[in-house]
Design a protein that fits this description.
The chain is an alpha+beta fold. 37% of the residues lie in helices and 24% in strands. The protein has 5 helices and 7 strands, in the order H-H-H-E-E-E-H-E-E-E-E-H. A 7-stranded antiparallel β-sheet has the order 1-2-3-7-6-5-4. It starts with a helix and ends in a 33-residue tail after the last helix.
Amino acid sequence: MQRRAQRAEQRKQRPSRINRVLAGAAAVPVMLIAAGCSSDSGSGADAKQASESPAGASASLSPTVEAAAYAKLPEPCSVLSKKTLEELVPEAGKSGKEGNSDDVSVRAGCSWDSLDNNGVKGSQFRWLNVSLLRFESDATRGAGEQRAQEYYEKQVADAKAVEGAKNTKTEQVTGTGDQAAAVRYDLKKKEGAFKQQTVVTRVENVVVTVDYNGAGLAGEKSPDADDLMKAARKAAKEAVAAVTKANGADTSAAPDSPRSPSKSPSKSSSSTKSPTKKS
């Protein structure tokens, strides 16, 4: 009798235990859902905070640079006057040889050579080259003027480091562009002893390089280096004036201040090497 009473009591208690287990099991998903919602809510808040932080704001901004001052280059074989060409390369003829370029608004050049042949008395040789390189402003590479200044410095350094050059001298040039330097040296070739003069000038975002050399061949005496340098500097000054004029600037301003250019930006940019300097 006592055992039957205990079993009956156990049967009465069993449903309440089952109910408690079911209730506990149902509570677990509710807790997980609540935890999931809490986690998602936190992630959203973190994302919102990142997007509103200074770092997020700065990353969304596009860098800007000032538009380049000069948008085009002049016709390279027309940058020097007829009188200047007759002085520097008297036997060159009426026109020079224009260099190859994918875009003449970015890179252009022209060269002339002159041989005054006096037969058994020897000959005088002259070679002249004018190269122009324009730099456009670029958000990743920097302002056109800055890029031109870097190239200008490289051109001067390259002129000072020519292999085989002797008696190299460098001097600053005033009254031509925003920056200008002249490099001179002697260079021995199989044809004779050459006197090389290089004038590198930067005007706004354009770099102008004038190379001028001369030699006395077949027994003719070498030309005077000072005379050649004077002529090269004259050519550089004319080329700079041609650049400013092509862009609508007032060329009657002071030579060392060729300002008031048209500020319209050009459509393309490039950074290429100048034409070969040696004949």
